[in-house]
Design goal:
Blueprint lengths: L98 H13 L3 H13 L5 H13 L7 H21 L6 H21 L7 H13 L3 H13 L7 H13 L17
Helix pairs in contact: 1-2, 2-3, 3-4, 4-5, 5-6, 6-7, 7-8
């Protein structure tokens, strides 16, 4: 499968300097506030060993629904500031007619633990009139983990990849004046989840080298969890050559957005700047 096809100019992001960033209080959201949508929590999964220096995974307090799962490095997701420039689109919850309407209905059902109704709404959000990116994302996650529907990791992966491809296409159109807040949000979430699929072998043959490529794309787009996963892989040689200096750079980038730096004092040493 080809690697993520995003141009360097599209993915340009600021990277941290050698100066130690100010500490930011780490925040935990239900899923993450990349989008103007409130997304339900990620489903449970088999935990993997935590990254060196990071505390064991904890489950934050969330509304009813499947508990949050740890990432490959063993952490719950970190709240990100990416994509906050987007404005919420008006939705109609009483007489849904658009993919966005069904997406919001699906999220509402999910948070109230009505998973079958949620899955049906997510499917509509993914397919009606071509669907919307976040609808494809959530329908893919629902199928991957069996949220109120038949579990199919392969089908889930296909929808996650479609969400990522749609977002990449929209991102390219952004050069022509589109509002990029929501597009960037969908892109980061979908790319990150495709990376998770490759890392864990969810619906696709496990390929940590490919996972690293997807984590790198999402990291460059500013996702703190992807930054931590990329740092973890670089530090431990998972799907890539070990590179402690680059690992430190991405850990610092994540910490600047609120990720914990407990046990990571080494990332501020001069030799890793």
């Amino acid at each position: 499968m080809p690697s993520p096809s995003l141009s360097p100019s599209t993915l340009q992001a600021q990277t941290p300097t050698g100066v130690q960033p100010p500490r930011v209080t780490s925040q935990i959201s239900v899923y993450s506030n990349y989008s103007y949508y409130e997304l339900p929590p990620t489903p449970p999964a088999n935990a993997q060993p935590p990254s060196p220096g990071l505390p064991p995974p904890t489950t934050p307090s969330t509304p009813a629904g499947p508990p949050v799962s740890p990432n490959p490095g063993g952490r719950p997701r970190t709240k990100s500031s990416a994509g906050h420039s987007a404005k919420a689109e008006p939705v109609n919850l009483t007489d849904p007619k658009t993919p966005q309407d069904y997406l919001q209905i699906g999220i509402q059902h999910h948070l109230e633990n009505r998973l079958a109704e949620s899955a049906a709404a997510f499917e509509k959000a993914a397919t009606l009139d071509g669907g919307c990116g976040v609808g494809m994302l959530m329908w893919g996650l629902a199928q991957r983990h069996g949220w109120g529907c038949a579990q199919s990791e392969a089908a889930g992966f296909r929808w996650l990849r479609r969400a990522a491809e749609l977002a990449v296409s929209d991102l390219e159109k952004g050069r022509q004046g589109m509002d990029m807040g929501a597009v960037r949000s969908e892109l980061v979430l979908a790319i990150y989840e495709v990376g998770q699929s490759f890392y864990r072998g969810w619906g696709v043959e496990k390929d940590k080298e490919m996972a690293v490529q997807y984590f790198r794309v999402a990291a460059r787009l500013g996702d703190p969890d992807a930054q931590q996963e990329l740092a973890f892989c670089l530090l431990n040689g998972k799907g890539c050559k070990k590179d402690k200096r680059e690992a430190a750079k991405w850990y610092r980038a994540a910490v600047a957005q609120g990720a914990s730096d407990i046990g990571l004092a080494w990332i501020y040493k001069d030799k890793y700047q």
